[in-house]
Amino acid sequence: MKGFSKILRKTDTKKRLSVPIRFLKSLPPFKLGSHAVEFEATDEKGETWAFQCSTRKSGPYQKPVLTTGWVAFVKSKKLQIGDKVRFVKYRNRATATISYKVRAEKEIRIFGVIFGYAPI
């Protein structure tokens, strides 16, 4: 998986963002014995955001979540329940460098019906 998008729920806007397990393969490798990895993502305005993705230390399910940096991003973008966020991994073919993009989108409602999403 090179990326994912998610419509935000209450926990996503207040504490942490749960991410699909498949997205772990797109992140930098976890150090041996570590259950967290840090990475940076650039938004639509070119601002760089530092995030930490962590998994459970034990148990049958990893349950990856973005913690460090996530709440600051939510507050900065004024994200609310129902808004959408998208993370995408890019590989520069010429230099073989990896980069990540993050895009926040506001929910657009007309007469109470979700009409679509607009980039912030």
TrEMBL record:
<dbReference type="Pfam" id="PF02362">
    <property type="entry name" value="B3"/>
</dbReference>
<protein>
    <submittedName>
        <fullName>AUXIN RESPONSE FACTOR 4-RELATED</fullName>
    </submittedName>
</protein>
<keyword id="KW-0539">Nucleus</keyword>
<keyword id="KW-0804">Transcription</keyword>
<keyword id="KW-0805">Transcription regulation</keyword>
<keyword id="KW-0238">DNA-binding</keyword>
<dbReference type="GO" id="GO:0005634">
    <property type="term" value="C:nucleus"/>
</dbReference>
<feature type="domain" description="TF-B3">
    <location>
        <begin position="2"/>
        <end position="106"/>
    </location>
</feature>
<dbReference type="InterPro" id="IPR015300">
    <property type="entry name" value="DNA-bd_pseudobarrel_sf"/>
</dbReference>
<dbReference type="GO" id="GO:0003677">
    <property type="term" value="F:DNA binding"/>
</dbReference>
<dbReference type="InterPro" id="IPR003340">
    <property type="entry name" value="B3_DNA-bd"/>
</dbReference>
